[in-house]
Amino acid sequence: MGSLNNNVIVFSLVSLILFPWLNFSLHVSSNSAEEAHALLKWKTSLDLNQNRSLLPSWTLHPVNSTQISPCSWFGIRCNRFRRVHGINLTTADLKGKLDEFSFSSFPHLAYLDFSNNGFFGIVPPQIGNLTKLKYLNLSVNLLSGKIPLEITQLALLKVLCIAQNQLHGSIPRQVGHLKSLLDLDLSRNRLSGVIPPSIGNISNLQILYLPYNELFGYIPYEIGFLKKPQVKFPSAGKKTSL
């Protein structure tokens, strides 16, 4: 009886240690599979290049879909929990709309680079769901519409580059909420209106590029609150021509 009781105790201790780990492992695998399927769904929305396969490493191999992970796919970087932490698809010859991308499926995403492609359409408001995002580069595409207000909710963002697109409308006056920002490049668009005074609230801003837009009015004196910025913007009272 003593030996039996000891075995029961040992089994119980092992269960206490092992079962939570198994549950955690299954949960991580499920989340990773969800991210993989979200990426594949977005891939199907892209315009295919007839000369070659589009993102060939983005494919499902295992029979059990809960074991799928995108961590070895081209342009994808994962954290130690095998959740997508970074996506770098710069200069990948991709064409399509960003509003087909499921931003809410990537709660751990900190790095996103879609620059130098052929993305068109609007910058979706859903991009505000990426609350852990620190780096966002959408430069050199064909994006149009306005800068979504939801971008100003990305409190951890350090780099925001949406240069060389076809964005119009004004720079959101709430841009000053991005107090972690170090680099802001909105140059070579069709932005109009005045430069928001709230930019002066981004005290650590080091790079501010606004030329080649249709901005007008005076440069706000709040710009002087910035510590050591590298700044390019239009002359006071004139449209951008730099």
From TrEMBL:
Top-level lineage group: Eukaryota
Protein name in the entry: Leucine-rich repeat receptor-like protein kinase family protein
UniProt organism field: Melia azedarach (Chinaberry tree)
